[in-house]
Design goal:
The structure is a homodimer. Chain A is mainly α and about 220 residues long. The longest helix of chain A has 26 residues. Chain A binds a DNA duplex (30 and 30 nucleotides) through helix 1 and helix 3. Chains A, B: One of its GO terms (molecular function) is transcription cis-regulatory region binding.
Chain lengths: ~220, ~220
DNA sequence: GCAAAAGTTATGACGGAGGTAAAGTTAGAA
DNA sequence: TTCTAACTTTACCTCCGTCATAACTTTTGC
């Protein structure tokens, strides 16, 4: 899922114009990704991307208002992931258990949203201060969405300190493990190897938090 | 303490140049703060600040490489605060107890580093995406420094998942309460009132985490 | 005590991101 | 076919952050 809500529509509108729009957008995104991977995010200018895609500079910034939007996709899926895991938890399951299960299955599936993004993509992000800052913002939004979900699940106000603290703790564990995957990816480890390491470490990390939140927000 | 380590020296070096340097730096900082408060961070250009301080544009960016540096001072104190609290904990005291004590005393003292920065300053930060992103980065650095301190305190590697997770949890609580102070400041509450609210909420927030980390890194 | 050298500071000029306005072009409707 | 609305393009602008250059203060050699 992309940033724009328009992509949630089923491309039902009369095809030709919409189709060309999609193509143009995808073309720009592809060329941008290629250039970012090849020469880094900061070293790539919007003008270069526009030239590579054979469009005007303004067309690029029209589809992607900020340069970071060209690199970080699936933002909405990332931001809402934890909140959705809590909302979809099984009866009798606590938020803690649901989020631990979500992380372990994401690790087992080597889900890009959990941090399995490949060495080039990972290097692109950590080498760019702009993208790193953007990623921090996404983690923040994710925690905020989780706090709202926890407030709803426990029948408390979203301004209350308890759901906000719980969200911070739970999202914090996810964030630590996310960055652990990034670190291991940069160290040259393969996906399967990382998944094996992470399964053990995630279990330990959640075990540390378990005494505090094992029963919080039980459905 | 400022960003530059040069300010740690006692201004012993031959006076004239150093003195003028200090004066110029302070003058720029003062004019910048005035303008930021009056018309907001994003709406203030470096050229305006330079004009107000009667110096060249480049002189401003020479002292303050990035625009954010003009607004956010005391960065080092903020970043190292939690790690220092752990390093200076009393014998028999756990990291959890030391950090709870540090927060409660900072709240009682209405310490700016804890978030008591006044309504204008607070509004300046939250209304500026740039400054908000910068603040997120500082929180991140603070957590990282805490992780290193906890690894040292427990005799584990800084790459280990346990100190990193513990740092995330403890710094997370501090971050939630920091933003709570910001929210209450923006809502128009006074410092004493906020301190009273925060004392109760901080106690609750730490109580939530206590079962997990009460004995972690006991000195 | 003086002059040259060395390091530091301020200055003007430049590249890139992001935004606005107006004109040209193309898809879809009457 | 013709008109309307949208998307793309062009040109221009502001502003941040960096590069090479000029001016100054302190230090060093004589």
């Amino acid at each position: 899922m992309d940033i724009e809500s328009s992509t949630t529509t089923d491309s039902a509108a009369t095809g030709l114009r919409e189709a060309k729009k999609r193509e143009t957008r995808q073309l720009i995104s592809d060329r941008a990704t290629e250039l970012f991977m090849a020469q880094g995010f900061e070293r790539t200018t919007i003008a270069e991307i526009a030239d590579a895609a054979r469009v005007a500079k303004k067309t690029v910034t029209n589809y992607f208002p900020r340069k970071e939007d060209l690199a970080l996709d699936h933002q909405d899926e990332f931001v809402t992931g934890l909140a959705r895991a809590v909302a979809a938890r099984e009866p009798g399951e606590s938020a803690f258990v649901a989020l631990r299960r979500a992380l372990l299955s994401a690790v087992a599936a080597q889900d890009p949203v959990a941090g399995f993004a490949g060495p080039e993509f990972t290097r692109m992000i950590v080498e760019s201060p702009t993208l790193s800052a953007c990623l921090r913002g996404l983690h923040d939004q994710r925690e905020e969405a989780l706090a709202i979900a926890l407030a709803a699940a426990t029948g408390t106000s979203a301004a209350d300190i308890t759901p906000r603290t719980a969200a911070s703790l739970l999202a914090g564990v996810h964030r630590v493990l996310f960055h652990r995957i990034l670190d291991l990816t940069l160290a040259g480890h393969g996906g399967k190897e990382i998944a094996a390491i992470l399964e053990a470490e995630a279990t330990r990390a959640f075990a540390l938090l378990e005494p505090a939140l094992a029963d919080y927000a039980r459905a």
